[in-house]
């Protein structure tokens, strides 16, 4: 029974070998010219300006919520569309509750101003 998992183990070992090989190879063949500026915390070499932690506008959170709202909608609607006849009334009721939750989320986003173009 364990012989069925041999191709998966082989693929995993090959992937690990390639990953380690590439990292080691780049370490020894890559350019090694560190200087004070490159060893700073920021790779761009710029001096840090201001505090490292700053507040983000609420708009970023609203856009993320919109993405999750519509992404989850598509993820759950596609399988439902394939089997909606077999689910019957209970499936229709479950999808109705799902849509109510999505509409509440959309109304919240709308009232917060996430759908306004600026």
Explain this structure.
The protein is mostly helical and 118 residues long. It is built from two helices and no strands. It starts with 5 loop residues before the first helix and ends in a 6-residue tail after the last helix.
Order of helices and strands: HH
Q: How many strands, what sense, and barrel or not for the largest sheet?
A: none
| Rg of Cα set | 25 Å
Summed up, the helix count is 2
Helix content: 55-70%
Number of strands: 0
First-last Cα distance: 60 Å
Annotate the secondary structure layout:
Blueprint: H1 6-29, H2 58-112
Descriptive tags:
0% strand, 118 residues, mainly alpha
Tell me briefly what this model is:
By secondary structure, this protein is an all-alpha fold. The protein has helices at 6-29, 58-112. The chain starts with 5 loop residues before the first helix and ends in a 6-residue tail after the last helix.
